[in-house]
Amino acid sequence: MTVSTAAFHRPADRPMSQKWPVAVRFQIVAYFTVCFIAISTLPNSIWNTEVRGFVYVIGILGIWRYLWWANHWLRAMIFANLTYPRMRDRAAAVWKSGWRPRHIHIQMTTFREHRGISEAVIRGLVRDIRECGVPATIWLGSSEAEDERQIAEHLKLVGSDCDIALRIIRQNQPGKRVAIALILRAMSRAGLSDDDLIIFMDGDFVIHPGMMRRCFPLFALDKELHALTTDEYVEVQGPRWMQTWLDMRFSQRRLAMQSHALSNRVLTLTGRFSVFRAKHVMTSEFIRLQEADFLSHWLWGTFRFLSGDDKSSWYCLLRQGVKMTYVPDASGTTIEVVEGSGYQRMVENLRRWSGNMLRNGQRAIALGPHRMPFFIWWCLVDQRIAMWTMLFSPLLAIAGTIKIGLPFLISYLIFIAVTRMLLSLVLFAYAPKVDLGYVWMLYANQIVNAVVKVYMIWRLAKQKWANRGNQKQGMESLGWVAVAREGMASYLTCLSFGSVFLIVMVYTKLLEIPGWAFFASIFFR
Predict the structure, then answer these.
(1) Spatial CA neighbour of 382 closest among 400, 403, 407, 357
(2) N or C end of the chain, less CB within 10 A?
(3) pLDDT (tens digit per residue) in 112-135
C-alpha cells in the first residue's frame, strides 16, 4: 500500500494561468457554444405555449434553488474575504507572541488501516507537534493489536525527539462510538481542565502542515468558541469517477461551511479532524451521546446510532448554544481506498451520510430557531425540503416528454447542461482543479442523493458501515414485527414517490381528476 505525496500537503492556490489553462478555457467556451447551437438548431419546445406550465415550474424551482446557492456563495465570500482573515491574522499574532496550549490531546480511532496510511497519519501529527513544541498525548482507540503495534513502532521511529505519549485504549465492544467513549472516560480520569483542547480525528486522515498552529490560537482569542472543524481533501485509490465525485462534494462542502460559519455555527463537526474545548466534551452527557446515542421513532421504536459520532458531537454542542466555526486554511487529506464496486461504495456512503443527516437534523430542527441563529435553523429545514423539490424537475421532464415528445426532453437536457455548468463554475473556485466532469456529476449526485434520502427517511433504523468492519444495524429479520415494519417502510416509500409523481401528472394534465359530476353520476343515479 503506497500513499501519494499529495496527501501530505494542502493543494496550493494556483495562479489563474495554472488553474485555468488556455485549453480548459477553450473547452468551457466550446461547451457553451455547443449549447447555444443546440438550442438554436435542434427541435425543442422551450417557446411552445403548450408547455408553458412546465417551464414555469421548472424555472421557479430553479430560481429558488439558485438564489439559495447565491446566498450561500455571497456569505461564503464575506467569511473568506472579511471575517476569517481578521480571525487568522489575530490568531497568527497570538501564536507568534509565544502562546501555546499547555498540552495537546489527540483522540484518534483506527480500524484495520493500511500500514502506509497509518504511517502517513503519524508523520503528519509528529511534524505539527514538533512545531508546537509542547507535550502531547495520542489517545488511540482500537480493537486490533496489529494496528496498535504499527502505530507504536512508527511513532517511536519518527517522534523519538518529541514529548509524545501514546495511550492505547483497547475497546471491549465493537464500533467506533464505543472506542471514542472509552477514550473520553480515560481522559476525564486524567484530570483535563475545562480549557484544554482535544483533537478528534480519524486514523486515515493525513493532516497538512500548519494544521495545529492555525486552529489552536482561535480558542485563546475567543473564550466563547467551543469547537471548530477543518477543511478536507480526498485521495481516492479506486475508480477515477469517484475522485471527481468526492472532489465535487468537498468543493460544495467548502462553500457551505464558510457560509454557515458566518453565523458562528456549522452543520457538522467532522470526525476527520475537529478541535474541541474540553469543558463540554468531558461531561457525562457528551460521553454518553458518543457511546449510545439513540432516537425514538414511531415506526422503528428506540434504536441506537451506529455511525454519525460527529453529528452527535455537533448536536450536543448545538443544544448547549455554544459557538462553533470553520477554519478553511487548516486541512488534511483522507485516503479513500475503494475495493470492489465503486457504485456500491457510493450508494453506501450516501445512505450513511443521508441517514446521519436525517436522524440528527430532525431533532436539531425540533430545538427551534431560538436555540441557534435562524439561518442555521433554516438550513436544517431546507435540507429536508430540497430532497423533495429535487425530484420534481426530472419527473416534470418525463411528463413533458410523454406529453410533447422528444423536443421537450432536448429542451430539458440543454437547460441542465447550461445551469449545471454555471454552478460548476462557482464550485471550481473551491476545487483543487478545474474538472469538467463536475457538470454531469453534479446533476447525478443531486438526483441519486434525493432518491436515497427519501428512501432512508422511512428507514432511519437501518444502518450499515461497510468500511468499519461491515457493521450493520436494523438489517436482520426479527420475526413478524420486523416484517411488518419493513412492509410499512416499503409502503411509505412507494407512497412518497407515487405522491410526487401523481402531483406532477395532475399538474401537467396527463392525468385528469374526475369532477363532481363524475362522482355524482356514480353515487346518485
Answers:
(1) 357
(2) C
(3) 888 889 999 999 999 999 999 999
**CB neighbour burial string for 105-133, b if at least 16 within 10 angstroms, e if fewer:** bbbbbbbebbebbbbbbbbbbbbbbeebe
SS3 of 61-107: HHHHHHHHHHHHHHHHHHHHHHHHHHHHHHHHHHHHCCCCCCCEEEE
Task: Answer whether 0.70 is exceeded by the pTM.
Answer: yes
- Give pLDDT tens digits for 223-279: 999 999 999 999 998 899 999 999 999 999 999 999 999 999 999 998 899 999 999
Residue 225 CB: number of other CB atoms within 10 A? 18
Q: Which residues face 109 on adjacent strands? A: 141, 202
Superfamily of domain 69-292+323-338: Spore Coat Polysaccharide Biosynthesis Protein SpsA; Chain A (3.90.550.10)
DSSP annotation string for 194-229: TT-EEEEEETTEEEPTTHHHHHHHHHHH-TTEEEEE
Cell numbers 453506501 correspond to what residue? 348
| CB burial of residue 96 (10 Å; 0-12, 13-18, 19+) | exposed
Rounded Cα–Cα distance for residues 92 and 330 (Å)? 13
Query: Where exactly are the structural domains of the chain?
Result: 69-292+323-338
